[in-house]
Amino acid sequence: MGIKKPIVLEIAYRTFAINEFGAATAFVLMGTEKGLVIDTGTGMYNLREIVDELCDLPYDVAITHGHCDHIAWADQWEEVYLHPADNDIFYDIKRNKEMTANYPGMMAKHGTYDAYDIPMSQITFPDHMPKTLPMEDGHVFDLGGGRKVDVIHTPGHSKGEVVFIDPYTRILFSGDACNPNLGIRATSINTALKGLLKVKAREADFDRNFNSHIGYGGSTVHIAMPDSCLDDCLYIMSGLVKGEITPEHAVSPFRPGSAPIYFVRHGAVQISLDPERIIDEGEEPAV
Question: Which structural domains are found in the chain, ordered by start?
Answer without folding.
Answer: 7-273 (3.60.15.10)
